[in-house]
Amino acid sequence: MKLHAWAWLALSSLPLFPVAGATRPRYGGAVTVDLSFVSAGVVTPLVEETLVRLNEKGEIEPFLATAWQMDPDRKRWRFSLRPKVFFHDGEPLNASHAAAALLPELRKKYGDVNATAGGQTIVLQFDRPVPDLLTELANVRMAIFRTNEKGMPIGTGPFRVDTWEPGRRIALAAFEDYWGGRPFLDSAIVNLGASRSTGDIFDIPFSSARRVLPEHIRIWESPVHELIALVGDNVHPLAWQALALSIDRAPIINVLAQKRAEAAFGLLPEWLSGYEFLFTAAPDVARAKQLISQLRLTPMTLSYPANDGFMRSIAERIALNARDAGIALSPTPNPGGALRMVRWTIESTDAAAELNRMAALLGLPERALSATRPQELYEAERAMLDTQRIVPILFLPDVYGIAPRIHNWDAAQKGGGFSLHLENIWVDK
Amino acid sequence: MSFRAKIFLSITATVVVAVWIVAGVVSTLVSRSFERRDEQRTATLVAQFHAEFNRRSAEVARRLDAIASSDEIARMAVDLGSSQSDLGKYYDQAQNLAREQSLDFLELVGPDASIISSAEWPARFGYKESWLLGFGDSKGVFLKREELADGSALGLIAVRTNGQLSIVGGQKLDKQFLDTLPVAEGMRVELQTAIDPATQSREIRRVTPEATITSIPLFGRENQLLAVLQVENSRSELASLKRYIQGTALLVGSGAVLLGLLLSFWTASRVTRPLRELTLSVREVADGKWDTRAGVRSGDEVGQLARDFNRMTAQLVEQRDRMIQAERVAAWRELARRLAHELKNPLFPLQITIENLQRSRDTPQFEEVFRESTTTLLAELDNLKTIVGRFSDFSKMPAPELERTNLNQIVREVVKLFDAQIHGSGRPEVQVELTLDENLAAIQADPEQIRRALRNLILNALDAMPDGGVLTIRTQNLDGKVALEVSDSGAGLTSEECERLFTPYYTTKQHGTGLGLAIVQSVVSDHKGTITVHSQPGKGATFRIEFKA
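The joint structure predicted for all components is written out below.
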């Protein structure tokens, strides 16, 4: 059981401080999580854990590793594993397990890596400096886990996989021997691709149609981690500038995204890069008209993902803004237009890795970047924006509806990242 | 043009003109009938359009009233009055309400005319509908062009208010609307919205080969032209009927042509055959076959004509025979007269000489007289032989033996023969002028006969100039012919003399036989040539002979 949970329990038992029953931690019970469009990855950290993790401030903090040291050249790293950590099958975690889980992923990323495992200590030796190793190790891809004979993951997280129906349903059960303390919940059922949102926790997609929710349902948003952007190929530079200047993001955020999104001017959100505000620019239709006044523009098509009403609404609004500037855009669900709307999910907290991933999506060359050098990241992102291939529009969070029987939700989600943290919530009877 | 062709053309033209007049009249009547029908159908359709327009307007008004009084709009109107209101949550409200009320257009507009929610163009939220600012309060339904993301559409629009909220909605006036109208077969109705407002302010009717098109302008709330209702009545049925009439007329016309052909053939066989036979008979008569008889036996005018013709030819033959007989007698008489005249001249000296001989038989001068008398007798006998020879020559004109002949050379040879006669002492001075074309084409001729003819012409000319004068001989090339002219500057001839000049035994000379020019004409004729004389009294005469080159 987590320590602060015990503290809650102790506090709640004090007769001098009577509190409402709803705020008193309670063991037992189950929750249902209905995910209609969010991937199952949001519950992976409930089962699998990493050596380190990012806290809500984006700082590295210990997780399965309690301490670490590195040589000055950042080629050799030594991690001390948390003691008394058990896998869901009861086997204690040791350095060999960590080395077996980490080496394949590290070699994909860094090439030649050697690991020396001894007891609770693992030493990683690289042939080149890896200053951003900790950020990389915080990524869920670097989770420590094994698989059983059925291929189900066996991790060290607060929940173990009870049953798993790929693409449909995951049944999680509380791990009694969790090193952080047993979760309050006994179990959690995660329905994937749910068509109905009747669960205790459910995701709310951004949609052109407003969803009327019962008044008692609470809305919770994750940190923004999805970029909606306009991508173009072979558009005249002046037309591109005019188009970027014509887009008014505020109405899109206030009306279409119901104020749950953030205006995007950079490729990475502010919380990830720390410099996104430097790209901010106000819409300027007059300037846009001036830019294209010398051009003979032919109508362009703006394609958006079929069956995505939210993207269609944004595309239509952008087309309307562009029309005000004198640019004819025709939104279409058919791919192949000169311009297209894209939704790119930020998968990790590694800004450098995300920038390079976006560069790859844009067909731009990958650059050697380090998340520890913001100036370098800024210049790289600026260069990507200056290619006039992409105009960021919005950053979106994941939005969830939370039933009133769920307690301690907000505090529990301060664990960082975009994952759902169910280990510290409890439910009414 | 033959008589048969005239009959054929007359019959055909009459029938064809009659057929086309009938076809034209029928076609005109049919056209007028169709035009009246088109007008009636157009009027009916326009009336139905207006009825449907009014019905739809009432429907739009009813639905807008329902929306304006709905709980959703009431809540929204209240919310709009709140300073804390978040209008973004009404983004799809108009779409939902429009769907419920089956409206094509619906916009929820705030007090500042900003669109809060739009069903027809959801992305337009926040944009202003400025025209609403001065709209006031009206319950009417009007036509309005609504801007859409992909263009514009014409709509029946109504405006309602609930508090500060304006509800603007309506239905499209489009093809689906027009499809509800009962359009008769051959009619087409369409709504044209891409128009120049300045081009049409009243109903226009125009006729094309394909259709009769009636354009009715449709105006908006402020009398601005928004669309044109175009009603087309296809003229294909009329065109088809006209084609049928024309086809029938063509068929009847063709039949008329065929009928005309048959009638003309029949008529020709009845009418023109006797005429043709008569024409052939006339042609034979013209060719000299005077005993030709027309074989027409009909009792009509043509038959009478044929009988008269036959009588005429019979009389002609009879008269010809009589004339020949008379001419023969005249010729014999003329010949006898000539012979008597010609022979009388030498006979008288013969008689005198013989009488002198008889008287001097017993005189001492007998020898001398005998010698002189015998000389005279021989001379006169020669003269008689010459006369007889001339008559003999005329009767013995042989067929020409044609050969390539140079006419200039013959002229020079013959003129040379007359040198002594022309330039002899004591003779009147005759000046000979030869104007010969050195490029004269050769002719096919008998040189001897040509010489003989030319000699006669020159002798004739010399005889015409007893006091001297100018003898001119010319040759020249004509178009495919060669001409020879012999001119004198003598006393000339009267026109009557010119006409009879080539008649045998006719002469203007005191001692002529009248055979010289007859021989010339005979030679020329035998060479397929022509001879003419041009003369006026006192201005000499010119004989012109033309031969084929």
